[in-house]
C-alpha cells in the first residue's frame, strides 16, 4: 500500500470490521483500488455489486471504496441500511473521512468510519440469535 497503509494497519482494519459487525447483522467491506484512472464512481458501484449487493439477508452491507492515488472515496450502503440512515449519514461520514485523508490520517479515518458504521448497523440491525458472517471481512484490492 506504499505510504497509505502498512500491512499491520490493514490487519487492524480487518479487526475493526470484525468488531464493528459483532453486534449487528450488517456487513462492512473495504476495497482499495489503485488501478482505476477515471470513472471511480462507476468502478465503485461495480465492486459493490460484486462484493455486497443482495448478498446479505437484510440488504445491510456497506462498501468503502477507496482510491488513495486519485483521492477518491465512495461509500455505498445496500438498500436495507440506506433506507434507515439516509444520505445525510453517508455525507457526514464521507466528509469526516476525506477531511482526515487530507491530513494524511488514512488508517485512523478508515478505522473510525468502520466503527461508526458498525454503531449505526447495530442501531438498525441488532443481532437476534445467531449472527453468521455473511461476507468476508478481508480487505480487497485492485
From TrEMBL:
This is TLP18.3, Psb32 and MOLO-1 founding protein of phosphatase. Pfam families: TPM_phosphatase. Residues 4-117 form the TPM domain. Gene3D superfamilies: 3.10.310.50. InterPro entries: TPM_dom.
Amino acid at each position: 500500500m506504499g505510504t497509505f497503509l502498512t500491512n499491520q494497519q490493514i490487519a487492524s482494519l480487518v479487526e475493526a470490521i470484525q468488531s464493528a459487525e459483532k453486534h449487528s447483522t450488517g456487513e462492512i467491506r473495504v476495497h482499495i483500488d489503485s488501478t482505476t484512472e477515471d470513472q471511480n464512481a462507476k468502478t465503485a458501484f461495480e465492486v459493490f455489486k460484486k462484493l455486497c449487493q443482495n448478498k446479505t439477508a437484510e440488504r445491510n452491507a456497506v462498501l468503502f471504496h477507496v482510491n488513495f492515488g486519485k483521492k477518491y472515496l465512495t461509500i455505498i450502503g445496500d438498500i436495507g441500511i440506506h433506507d434507515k440512515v439516509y444520505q445525510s449519514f453517508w455525507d457526514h461520514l464521507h466528509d469526516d473521512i476525506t477531511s482526515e485523508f487530507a491530513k494524511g490520517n488514512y488508517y485512523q479515518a478508515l478505522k473510525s468510519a468502520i466503527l461508526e458504521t458498525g454503531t449505526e448497523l447495530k442501531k438498525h440491525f441488532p443481532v437476534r440469535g445467531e449472527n453468521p458472517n455473511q461476507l468476508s471481512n478481508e480487505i480487497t484490492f485492485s
